[in-house]
Amino acid sequence: MGSLDLPSASSFKGGSETFLQDVLESILKTYLRKNPIAKTIWELVKSVDNEKISYDHFFFRTFKVDGYGIDSLSSFFMDYGYKVGGRLDFPKKKVHVLWLSPPDVNVVDNGYGIGNGPLPRLVIAELLVDELSRESQV
């Protein structure tokens, strides 16, 4: 598959939302561990809102090199029911963007957080490294 030449749906049949929630929770924990300022802000927001945070979206930045980028990351999530919601191209910035809508999952009434709330949309940006100047690539 060429970049941004993805199917618009997957063969997902449901039942894997716990796995997706675990993956996203792990990504969030890793991000917060590596970004202390973000962790401080996140903890402040969490303390004010009674820990009832829902996530609208997660944003990933990738590089289109050696089979990585939008294709590799989006295919993983599409295998678990995410669907292509839209695409954007920024030719002057040499960036492609894809957003994915989450699979339909059962959410408890007033559910929140990754474990009990709705799954977030995903936005994946891809820097087209091969289109950058030679100096930028090394």
Automatic annotation (TrEMBL):
Its EC number is 1.13.11.93. Keywords: Dioxygenase, Iron, Oxidoreductase. Its cofactor is Fe(2+). It comes from Camelina sativa. This is 2-oxoadipate dioxygenase/decarboxylase. Pfam families: HGLS. The keyword Manganese does not apply. Belongs to the 2-oxoadipate dioxygenase/decarboxylase family. The keyword Iron applies.
